[in-house]
Amino acid sequence: MILSKRLKADSTLLAVALIWGISLVAQRIAAIHSGVLLFTGLRFLLGALVLLPFVRKPFLRQSLSPHNQENPNYYVSMLTSIGLLGFVLFGGSALQQWGLRYTTAGNAGFITGLYVIIVPLLLALGWRQPPRRTLWIAALLSTLGLFLLSYTARMHLKPGDALELVGSVLWAFHIILLSRFVQRMKFLPLLVGQYLVCGLLSLIAGLLIELNPLTLPGLASSWGAILYSGVLSVGLGFTLQAYGQKVAPPADAAILLSLEAVFAALFGWILLHEAMTVVQLLGCGLILVGMLTVQLNAPTACCANAIAPSTPARPPSAGGTM
């Protein structure tokens, strides 16, 4: 029974990696034709609307009530956490979408996947968690792989790849913060709340910066990408991720989710005819090996336990416990 549950969880996470990999292809198409911020705002607001019906009203009233009897500060803590998560998500998503204007879906997938390595590095720097030796090997392999993936005759990082790299750091921060906050709060309200904040920030910024007679036709032509990335990538993908990580060990989850990069490169080649040189393929291989290497001898506890050891660990819960 335990093996069956783990297999089901691993299969779920593999499906998430597939959904996210295809989403990068959809986002790449939208990045060429529509505004970065407007597209990001619409897809996250759509994702929030998909999940909102699963947040039970009694729990929502209780958790957001300033008169919560269990914890008087829960209201402020919840809104602060949602605001911080939404802001970091806004930055990471905008940089990823902006980078996709100047790089391929495959490159974006592999560079974004570096959060697997950046997370333990940030934990080592910010939370005094000693890094394992394999982490430095993984970082070296991934740095070399990133150089080869973004290689040009001028020997510098391509602008789109640089944007994806900065975005990957923000994704790593988001993973750490979410892992910490979910120890004290219900997962689904956090999820929906951060999507609303990210979507509203992106939409407001997009209306102020990007709105012109050329962006509206571009958005109209990107309706398929908005639907896919909003409903499937944001609404379904993150929810399935939470379900899968309730059972799957962290090492399984990180390896399976890192396959998003492989699926992005594969479908970028199939659907967009994005080709890679032999040198770039070698770079992708080194990054993938680095992602897998960082999981060798990985601790069984999630990063949330490393951040807040005094807080009892509780896996993220999906809508069933709302």
Fold topology:
Blueprint: H1 2-33, H2 36-51, H3 57-63, H4 74-99, H5 105-112, H6 115-126, H7 133-149, H8 159-181, H9 187-209, H10 215-221, H11 223-245, H12 250-258, H13 260-272, H14 278-293, H15 303-307
Helix pairs in contact: 1-5, 1-11, 1-12, 1-13, 2-9, 2-11, 4-8, 4-9, 5-8, 5-13, 6-8, 7-14, 9-11
Architecture overview:
- With 322 residues, this protein is mainly alpha-helical.
- The protein has one domain (2-321).
- Helices cover 74% and strands 0% of the residues.
- The chain has 15 helices and no strands.
- Helix 1 (2-33) packs across helix 13 (260-272), helix 2 (36-51) packs across helix 11 (223-245) and helix 4 packs across helix 9 (187-209).
- Residues 300-322 have low confidence and may be disordered.
Summarize this, please?
The protein is mostly helical and 322 residues long.
Strand segment count: 0
Count of DSSP-assigned helices: 15
The largest sheet, given as strand count, sense and whether it forms a barrel, is: none
Strand content: under 5%
Q: Radius of gyration over alpha carbons?
A: 19 Å
Distance between the termini: 25 Å
Weakly predicted, low-confidence segments: 300-322
Q: Helix/strand/pairing class, anyone?
A: mainly alpha
The helix content, as a percent range, equals over 70%
Number of domains: 1
Mean pLDDT: 78
Global shape: globular
Question: Based on the structure, what is the oligomeric state of the protein chains?
Answer: single chain
Order of helices and strands: HHHHHHHHHHHHHHH
